[in-house]
């Protein structure tokens, strides 16, 4: 069974211990020094809405929104099974984007260092469009309100 709910910092740390190739590549390109990623996660949990997608008791991903410099940002930590093309996962993530992302009524930005082709497909499923690369060569996606 597939379901979504509020996530905890422990959920995020569990996913971090078993990251997908796409997520690991993204984080590696961001060059987080030791301890900084964990501090950033703590801040994201304090400041934003964080959810998880669970299947058969396993957290597949942790996804969240945070406000930074007057810009809403979406972020994702995922395990490998999340990136499969299973219709149940696609449907759940479409529901998430319709209910949570659309509910803000403003554009939402997402950045990634991964060049994996599955990332572009997933972002499209969520309703994001790829617009450009930023100054750090990260892919920039926008969910338009």
What gross morphology would you assign?
globular
Strand order of the largest sheet: 1-2-3-4-5-7-6
Name the CATH superfamily assignment. Gcn5-related N-acetyltransferase (GNAT)
CATH architecture: 3-Layer(aba) Sandwich
Secondary-structure class: alpha+beta
What is the CATH topology descriptor? Aminopeptidase
The major pleated sheet works out as:
7 strands, mixed
The secondary-structure element order is EHHHEEEHEHEE
Strand content: 25-35%
**Helix share bin:** 25-40%
Oligomer: single chain
Q: What is the typical, i.e. mean, pLDDT?
A: 84
- How far is it from the N-terminal to the C-terminal residue, by CA? 31 Å
Low-pLDDT runs of 5+ residues are none
Overview of this structure, please?
The protein is an alpha+beta fold and 145 residues long. The chain has one domain: Gcn5-related N-acetyltransferase (GNAT) (Aminopeptidase). Helix content is 37%, strand content 32%. It contains five helices and seven strands, in the order βαααβββαβαββ. A seven-stranded mixed β-sheet has the order 1-2-3-4-5-7-6, with helices on both faces. Strand 2 and strand 3 (58-68) form a beta hairpin. The radius of gyration is 14 Å and the shape is globular. 27% of the residues are buried. The model has no long low-confidence stretch (mean pLDDT 84).
